[in-house]
Fold these 2 entries.
Entry 1:
Amino acid sequence: MVAYQEQDITAGWEEILSKDKYRLMISEVSANYPDKKSIFVSYKDIEAYSIDFAMFVLENPDMCITKGKAVVKGLLPPTWDGKDQVNLRITELPCDAKVDIRLLRAKHLGKLVAVEGLVRKATTVKPRMIHALFRCARCNAEQWVEQTGMLLKEPVMCTNTEGSCNKQAVRFIIDEKESKYIDTQKVEIQESPEGLRGGAQPERLTGFVEDDISGIITAGNRITLNGVIRSVEKPDRDKSTVFEMYIDVMSVEFEQHEYDEIQITEEDEKEILSMSKDPNLFDNIVASISPTIYGMEEVKSAIALQLFGGCHKEMDDKTSIRGDIHILMVGDPGVAKSQILRYMSTLAPRGIYASGKSASAAGLTAAAVKDDFGDGRWTLEAGALVLADKGLACIDELDKMTPQDRSSLHEAMESQRISMAKAGITATLQCRCSMLAAANPKFGRFETEGMGTLTEQIDLPPALISRFDLLFVLTDKPDRKRDSNLSRHILGVHRRGEIRQIPEDAVLDGVNVEEVREMTTNVKPYYDVELLRKYVAYSKHVVPVMTDEAVKIIQDSYLRIRDIGRADGTITITARQLEALVRLSEASARLKLSTTVDAEDAQRAVRLVEYYLSSLASTNDGQWDMGAIDSGFTKKDRDRTKIVLGTMDMFGSPEGITLDELLAHVESEGMAEGELNKVLRSLVERGTVYCPRDGMYKKA
Ligand code: ADP
Ligand code: MG
């Protein structure tokens, strides 16, 4: 490695900065200071000057930047105030300067590196004093003191030899107004989930951003921080020799293209295109989703479509319509919900797995927290949905989420934004992700009898449940045929797993190794996970448009399902499901990289929505009733309410009516005690009915 002397470094910078583009930047800075105060130098230009010099800059950034700044100052007009800082920031670092957060070591200290990651926390921007102006308390002489650390440095003595204080003064008055400040922001990035195959915990790195580039980073961004790795002593009571690393940020690069992290070569592209022509493509993709899990074809088909997603639309009036498909699985324990979520979080590009009862303050959405991270400053912390922006958020145990999440999740799912207005932070975080969620029934297991409708058995607000495009109810009921197939499958999975561990040519008593291997090939994903992820990333550029035929199929089936409820006023399906139909059929077309949504796609979507409605009906006396989802109140409930209120009108005295009397009357109308209680509970909750005394009901 060439060692450059001071004058060589200066010469290097003079040569590089003499390029027209940098001369222009410098004159812009001098004209617009302090709105513009940085010269951004591309690493490529340094390399073009000399590869050795460029390497030297990476190894000795502090010295080189100081020299470079001096050169910049020389190029500024002579009238320039020496205390007005101009920054020299190097951007576009080469691939070999990239370091994974988990691989940062002592050898990187003091070096210029590029670190990629996902912003987990970002503080508000606060000023820090860099040059303090002091006045001598006696002679009023001015003195500038450069500030570097966290504590304010005062002058030692007055420097004015002619002043009245005779250099004796010990008291100085700071002029806060005239002193110079820069903005600062502290951020924390974590490794992006793509680098984390195998479920490792993401490593984090703190970054300090200063001056004109502070405030451009918000939680949830995918960025590259170019900067110098430094260390600070851990803020413990005892002096310690173990230091904490951080990055002193020189420049920030935002992700340019979607899915930059997934490299698709020309070869990959060829493979993807030929894959898209396979007539069995859909089934093969479904066969690549959690193949060790037996059955659940509908769930897997839905998840396959979710991976691809519908089209995000911007309308003429600037409103946007989400294309992401949200799926909720509610089911008995042990039906492989968690298993599927974990699988999908590794399969999907930008998949994140989180649990509703996560320990972090940000939870699923986001939080403004005041922790020691920001030295007591307010810090915005991104939750799982924000971290999964443009990806898939796999949320387990959704019913266990925190109350804050409960209230902000509606917005997050529908408008795909989370607005924060707390403690001076007003920020909008993007969470354009699909959500695959799982929840357990409130009482442990689903009951078809006596525990009420589906929504009553799930501990989630009905309005939230209705935000999901598809909802699957997974029950675990003994069923001889299914149980036998399921157990055969699971045993096969375990056997194959065992055989994978032993030598290829092993011969064992009582096992035909070769035969077992043959018989269990179906638990191997049809497509390799890496390839499928590339395929999904590639497909996102396709925007399919609905054909006339597809529109007709979707509309007809919507009207047909609506009609089922027309006779007795039940709402079987709402506009929400209509939108779900559109998204699902778009996804089906995108899956084939097709530019049109065809009849086949629309039919696939209709089949899925019908399956979902009929699976709901199985927990709702066989009725297709969207009211059960939207409001938790079915048509039957409404009819029963009418009977109860009517009875009160007819038989109630001015003091009200007793429960026993009410029961006697409604029983003759075919209502059971449990049903009466449910109706009364909701009427009291809504304030329509109240209890003047115990066991007595009266209309309000
Ligand atoms: P849940 O989250 O629904 O309570 P889990 O995902 O923890 O259930 O699953 C429990 C275990 O049962 C897992 O090890 C899973 O592999 C197994 N299992 C459950 N259902 C199936 C199935 N249909 N096929 C294969 N394995 C299954
Ligand atoms: Mg689970």
Entry 2:
Amino acid sequence: MALAEFLKQLDALVAAATAAFDGAADEASLEAARIEYLGAKKGRLKAVQKFMGAVGAADRPAAGKRLNEVKTQIETAFTAAQGRLGAVENPRRTGEVTAFDPTLPGRSLRLGRLHPITQTIEELKGIMGRLGFSVAEGPEIEDEWHNFEALNIPLEHPARDPLDNFYLAVAGAAAGTLLLRSQTSTVQIRVMEQGPPPVRIITLGRVYRPDTADATHYPMFHQMEGLLVDRQVTMADLKSVLRLFAASFLGSDVHIRFRPSFFPFTEPSVEADFQWHDQWIEFGGAGMVDPNVLQMVGYDPEQVTGFAFGLGIERLCMRRHNITDIRALYRNDVRFLRQF
Ligand code: DAH
């Protein structure tokens, strides 16, 4: 075949293909035109291409060059038509596959979960709620009155050492010295300041101490504080409440014991230990609210008495789940947290 004849056929092909693609009114006719012109086996471009071999050897480079141009032109015309019909958005729609297959399984959402400490807090609220304690809250940034003074902790007491507390340097603070609370006992004062007895509350929240983190220490941890003030409250009530609490949380086989201790805001003071699985575990401090504290908030110690306790929540949570390193709770590794 002469080169001129071959080129003429290519020109005719470009014209026809472009017209067909441009004229396609919907995706079906575009697809039909694609098969007619660009079809891999019986397409008309393929058919013309076969004549290449018949072109004289000297003319073949020119014929090949033009063939490539034509191919690009036809493909460009097709892509343009596809874009015009909006089919390009979803290439699958040009084939037999439909865009939406209602028989495919849905994508399941990955559910998160509550942090083990949050779970423990919710459970503690439930147990203490059934014993008649309502939940009170207080700020994590405290003044020295609520964290120390009103709790009978005088200025010279070692608990107020700057090395044992996160004091905050707030420029020109009118409120006086502020610190991150080192205990939830602050909330005892806040609640009693707000209203007269009787009082029956728990408070659960974060406390802060500049301890170096190790398996059993962390500079931030959680406490549950309890306070009950009423007429004729005795140490027997304290022991009963803590025993009921321990039995609800750990099981009825738990034992409880008090060891004499000292806290400035209770008199007498005790350390409360729970025995569980043949082991005695120290769970926190407790005692009868010191008359000085009652006086400080305007209560009459001749009329009312009360008990208070403060327990470490991490310890309860770790014991329950056999967690041996407190740092694991705060590393935010979901592979660990997912287990609870
Ligand atoms: N606030 C104490 C602490 O952080 C714990 C405590 C002891 C709380 C005795 C109390 C209590 O309410 O009566 O170490």
